[in-house]
Amino acid sequence: MRTLERTGAAGLSSEDVLRLRGQYVPAGLSVALPLVVARAEGSELIDPDGRRYIDLASGIGAQNLGHAHPDLVAAAREQLERFTHVAAQVVTYEGYVRLAAELDRIFPVVAGGSAPFHPPAERPRTKTVLLNSGAEAVENALKIARVATGREWVIAFQNSFHGRTYTAMTATGKTKNSRFPFMRTTAPSIAHLPYPYPYRPLVGGTEEQLTDLHVRLFEQVLETNLAPEHVAAVIAEPVQGEGGFVVPPRAFFRRIKEICERHGIFFIADEVQTGFARTGRMFGIEHFGVTPDLLVTSKSLGGGFPLGAVTGRAELFDGLGKGSLGATFGGHPVACATALATIRVIERDGICERSERLGAHMQERFREMATRHASIGDVRGLGSMVAVEFVEDRRTKKPAAALYERIQAEAFERGVVLVRAGLYGNVLRVLAPLTIPEAILDQALDQIDEAIAASG
Questions:
Q1: Could you tell me if 196 and 221 lie in one domain?
Q2: Residue 180's pLDDT band (boundaries 50, 70, 90)?
Q3: Pairing relationship of beta strands 385-393 and 231-236 according to DSSP bridges
Q4: pLDDT digit string (tens) for 330-353?
Q5: How many Cα atoms are found within 13 Å in the side-chain-facing hemisphere of 82?
Q6: How far apart are CA 414 and CA 4, in angstroms?
Q7: 323 and 215 fall within a common domain
Q8: 234 band by pLDDT with thresholds 50, 70 and 90
Q9: Cα–Cα distance list, 89 to 84, 147, 325 (Å)
Q10: 3-class SS at 233?
């Protein structure tokens, strides 16, 4: 285990906190590691005894700018001194409308995949409703799509994750663990289609052939199971997050969007985990040459404060009557302040470009590790959304979930916090803060290399 600085901290010990968790917190809220955090700074977590751990989880992607970023802390402090909560349904405050305007400005209007944005004159006018979380934003996006189209059905994808509230949970494309206990009470009128998984394709072939297959499956559902006239929306993560950072072929979403446009079906991009520079662009969908009708954001939008948003073409909101949208704490003033600071820092400090560089470096390091560790079956990602899939055998690709658990534990003993993903629980997903110093990132990668070697 690396030498860890001990700074000391007031309060309960780690053992006391974990004991209280076991006594008062339900086991259904599982925890990945036996770490109690007393402070967090930049890319490190610090326990009550002052031990420091390199954080490659970033609050499951909610801290793209790292912990306690000075600009975000200053924005939160300034807002706290003005007021904390007034409710956007009662009165209006500047932070809410300024953030809606900023989300309009950065809305991902993509020109055929060859350039990131259309000229300003071609950009649609958007509106935004602010909420408390990604799941709540998904719920509202689906409500808006259903009202705007007058249709009921939603198409989602297998292996996806959209949240734990009822409709978001139903849209989630895997049964275990979040859906299984609640299967009798899932929401109606949601269908799931296979998502292209290049490492585990349904049939062999090129990426173009994989795209053709999955587009044909999509068309076949509209020809058989569902009438297009009944489908309100398609919802998709540009890169599947909980599903294992699965990156589809670049042409896939463009072709799905073309079908949607033909039939008046809305395309909803769930950017809860891919948003705000994680993939090397402000939004992941920019990589695929697609302009969404509705954009769902959360996690790093709030810079560590709970915040979700649905942004979309203004006319999609026009059919909703007064009082049909909202949440008591939706668009909390402090979260709006940190969100505005988040967008400002990403653009000012070139965080998208830095995400690309860090991601390329991580993939290079992991691919080199793969030459020495036969358990690494695949290395993939976009920008700094990087994953390593572990297998028992590269030929059969049998998932190695137990091996991943040993690697995670070994890395933790060496002072590195990791988080898993994937349908089979065998994928290491790296969500390092995009502000992490290169030297600390390399130190973490060295420790992961050692952890893989020690895990057998």
A1: yes
A2: low
A3: unpaired
A4: 999 999 999 999 999 999 999 999
A5: 14
A6: 9
A7: yes
A8: very high
A9: 15, 21, 9
A10: strand
CATH of the domain at 441: 3.90.1150.10
Q: Is residue 9 packed enough to be buried (19+ CB in 10 Å), middle (13-18) or exposed (0-12)? A: middle
Compute how many other C-beta atoms are within 10 angstroms of the C-beta atom of residue 194.
15
Asked if 339 and 382 sit in the same domain, the reply is no
Beta strands in 39-165 (DSSP E): 39-41, 44-46, 52-55, 126-131, 153-157
Express each pLDDT in 386-399 by its tens digit. 999 999 999 999 99
Tell me what pLDDT residue 214 has.
98
Q: Is residue 1 part of a domain?
A: no
**CB burial readout 109-141, b (16+ within 10 A) else e:** bbeeeeeeeeeeeeeeebbbbbbbbbbbbbbbb
Q: What is the 3-state secondary structure (H, E, C) of 370-435?
A: HCCCCCEEEEEEECCEEEEEEEEECCCCEECHHHHHHHHHHHHHCCEECEEECCCCCEEEECCCCC
CA angle centred on 377, ends 373 and 379, rounded to 5°: 95
Name the residue range of residue 37's domain. 14-61+351-455
pLDDT tens sequence across 209-232: 999 999 999 999 999 999 999 999
Last residue of a domain, one of 348, 366, 390: 348
Same domain, 48 and 78: no
pLDDT at residue 172 in the model: 87
Do residue 423 and residue 290 come from a single domain?
no
Can you tell me the distance from the alpha carbon of 207 to that of 134, in angstroms, rounded to the nearest whole number? 30
Q: State whether 226 and 344 are in the same domain.
A: yes
Q: Given 328, 348, 368, which residue is the final one in a domain?
A: 348
DSSP string, 294-311: EEEE-GGGGTTS--EEEE
One-letter identity of residue 131: L
100 and 179 part of one domain: yes
Examine the pLDDT at 113 and tell me if it is beyond 60.
Answer: no
Cis peptide, bond prior to residue 225, ω within 30 of zero: no
In terms of domains, do 428 and 293 share one?
Answer: no
Residue 250 CA to residue 69 CA, distance in Å, equals 34
- Tell me the CA distances in angstroms from 98 to 63, 216, 252, 309, 340, one per residue in order: 21, 42, 34, 13, 8
